[in-house]
Write a structure and sequence with these properties.
The chain is 25% helix and 21% strand. By secondary structure, the protein is of the alpha/beta class. The chain has one domain: 5-stranded Propeller (L-arginine/glycine Amidinotransferase, Chain A).
Length: 267
């Protein structure tokens, strides 16, 4: 089945506030460079890999709407909408909701829960098992609420380094038996949880994590990731994957990468 993803052009993307350690208002985005990097990623998905990329309309005043991975967790035509922790991003949910409803998705009934969750940023789905990160942007209540609604068991992983405030900056789903993990940000107990579920856990270095090499998207045969991912890229090639490196550093100014710019739509 062709992979389907949701993206948003970086029309209004910029660093206008600081809500994570990567963001500095004096390190502003270069708009032309950001647009070129986004287009290069879009072209890899659609022209090189044949994936189908759907677009959501950019909105003024929502510079981080470009990071569509935070727009929900989509499984089987159902979507768990985000409850953003920071007020600067809370305006994104009313944009994502009608986009899903108007395209046949059903929203999961978890909005009454007073708990934060930021979509695929903190909920990484491996073989229908959601690994869910907390506490920087999501809390454990959100994991439990989503798991109950979906009828699955979430594996909650405690993150300790706020530079990796979303789980998708520290964990890559490589294939049905392997994940890559920066093991210094989850607690030892959380790393053990991953090892109990996943047969093969590849440990990435701090350099890998800081270069956003773990913020990647894969379809089983191809992996798209930062062009700074030299060591990990070589490992993926040895595993038989086709590697598609692409520059993404403009988006890292806001704490985002390849995966952050891409929400997988699982029908």
């Amino acid at each position: 089945m062709t992979k389907q993803i949701l993206m948003c052009r970086p029309t209004y993307f910029d660093v206008k506030y600081e809500i994570n350690p990567w963001m500095h208002c004096d390190n502003r985005v270069e708009p032309k460079r950001a647009k070129a990097q986004w287009q290069a990623l879009y072209d890899i998905y659609t022209l090189k890999l044949g994936w189908q990329a759907h677009l959501i309309e950019p909105q003024p005043g929502l510079p981080d709407l470009v990071f569509t991975a935070n727009g929900g967790l989509v499984i089987g035509g159902q979507v768990a909408l985000p409850r953003f922790r920071h007020p600067e991003r809370q305006g994104e949910t009313p944009v994502f909701k009608p986009r899903f409803l108007n395209n046949g998705f059903k929203t999961l009934p978890i909005q009454a829960h007073d708990c934060e969750g930021e979509g695929e940023g903190d909920a990484v789905l491996w073989n229908d098992v959601p690994f869910a990160g907390y506490p920087w942007r999501s809390d454990r209540l959100s994991h439990q609420a989503v798991a109950r609604a979906l009828g699955v068991n979430a594996v909650s992983l405690q993150l300790t380094d706020d530079r990796f405030y979303h789980l998708d900056t520290a964990l890559t789903l490589v294939n049905r038996s392997t994940v890559a993990l920066y093991a210094s940000t989850p607690t030892r107990e959380s790393v053990d949880k991953v090892r109990r579920v996943v047969p093969n856990v590849v440990l990435a270095s701090e350099d890998d994590a800081l270069a956003y090499r773990l913020n990647a998207l894969i379809d089983g045969e191809h992996i798209v990731l930062s062009d700074r991912a030299t060591g990990l890229a070589d490992m993926y090639r040895r595993m038989g994957l086709q590697v598609w490196p692409t520059p993404i550093d403009e988006f890292q100014k806001s704490g985002g990468g390849v995966k952050c710019l891409s929400l997988e739509l699982r029908h």
